[in-house]
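Students often ask why inverse folding is considered easier than folding. One informal answer: many sequences map to the same fold, so there is more than one right answer. In these notes we will look at a single instance of the problem. The structure comes first.
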């Protein structure tokens, strides 16, 4: 919708244009026309002058939102003068069609309707008063044709604009989803690395005085884990480039993940069924969810962590439970949010909470949804 002048001013100008057209059409009869213009009324120069003035007014105000109807009304009045003063001419119908096309393209729907009604009223008035039926009818047809073509072009332009806006929105959504995916990957990799590294360092601190050899082993494991996690982080970042071809973790890597937590000192009860082969992206999501669940359990839990990864009725279920420490600190929730997003992308569900002193996290993924 284009901006408009205040409605009172628009109505005043429109009523003035209508009044001028009606007065000019009714009172410029043959006797008065001859008394005012004399022989000039039959000169082709008058037609050319009127067309030049009309075109100049049109071009001078293109792009101004308040003038489409006014300029069109001026064109109707001038072509009526040409019809009454000179008689038949071949340019006016085409010119009216072009001007109505312009009104339909740059004006509002109300302006188009107003311009059409004004021209219809004016040309019909000329037909009945002066008997110029053929010429007035040709002008009416020109206005109708121009308006219809303009409306079709306007609708097409609006459809193209809406399509471009929708494409831009889809692009923004895709970019947002990609940022969220990268954030989840980086969070899961870094969170797992820091958590298990801190577990190793904590174990080394406990054995530093009484058993230096165990402390040294724990520090070496922390260093190896740091190097391994750095490589995994590089693989994740490599996904942003065109040459990122290194394989990412899959379900077959879960036993190694569980063992890394055990070596870091986490007590784990791991039970897993044989799962069907899934797309690489789905296996990565499931791997990351197990990784994040174990990371949270090691940070906030106390005691043995029970993990069950089962398959029943084409439904993959991940169930993680562990005792909650009384002094555990509340996290930011970003890891849980990331797991929830991964589950929803695979048409699954996630639930979590404290039940009888245990932190319980449950994820359900349909096999078909994971494959989709």
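Output (designed amino acids):
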């Amino acid at each position: 919708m284009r901006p408009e002048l205040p409605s009172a001013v628009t109505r005043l100008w429109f009523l003035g244009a209508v009044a001028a057209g009606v007065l000019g059409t009714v009172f410029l009869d043959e006797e008065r026309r001859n008394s005012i213009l004399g022989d000039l009324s039959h000169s082709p120069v008058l037609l050319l002058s009127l067309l030049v003035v009309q075109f100049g007014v049109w071009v001078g105000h293109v792009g101004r939102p308040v003038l489409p109807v006014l300029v069109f009304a001026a064109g109707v009045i001038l072509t009526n003068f040409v019809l009454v003063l000179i008689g038949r001419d071949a340019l006016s119908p085409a010119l009216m069609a072009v001007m109505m096309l312009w009104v339909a393209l740059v004006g509002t729907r109300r302006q188009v309707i107003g311009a059409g009604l004004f021209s219809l009223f004016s040309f019909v008035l000329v037909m009945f008063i002066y008997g110029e039926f053929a010429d007035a009818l040709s002008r009416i047809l020109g206005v109708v044709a121009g308006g219809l073509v303009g409306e079709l072009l306007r609708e097409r332009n609006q459809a193209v604009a809406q399509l471009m806006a929708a494409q831009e929105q889809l692009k923004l959504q895709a970019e947002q989803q990609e940022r969220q995916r990268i954030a989840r990957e980086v969070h899961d990799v870094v969170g797992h690395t820091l958590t298990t590294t801190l577990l190793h360092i904590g174990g080394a601190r406990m054995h530093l005085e009484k058993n230096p050899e165990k402390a040294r082993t724990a520090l070496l494991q922390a260093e190896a884990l740091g190097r391994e996690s750095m490589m995994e982080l590089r693989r994740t970042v490599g996904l942003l480039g065109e040459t990122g071809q290194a394989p990412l973790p899959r379900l077959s890597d879960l036993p190694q993940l569980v063992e890394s937590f055990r070596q870091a000192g986490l007590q784990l009860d791991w039970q897993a069924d044989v799962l069907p082969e899934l797309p690489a992206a789905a296996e990565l999501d499931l791997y990351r969810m197990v990784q994040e669940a174990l990371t949270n359990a090691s940070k906030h839990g106390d005691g043995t962590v029970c993990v069950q990864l089962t398959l029943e009725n084409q439904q993959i279920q991940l169930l993680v439970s562990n005792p909650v420490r009384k002094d555990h600190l509340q996290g930011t929730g970003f890891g849980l949010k990331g797991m929830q997003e991964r589950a929803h992308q695979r048409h699954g569900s996630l639930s979590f909470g404290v039940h009888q002193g245990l932190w319980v996290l449950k994820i359900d993924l349909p096999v078909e949804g994971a494959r989709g």
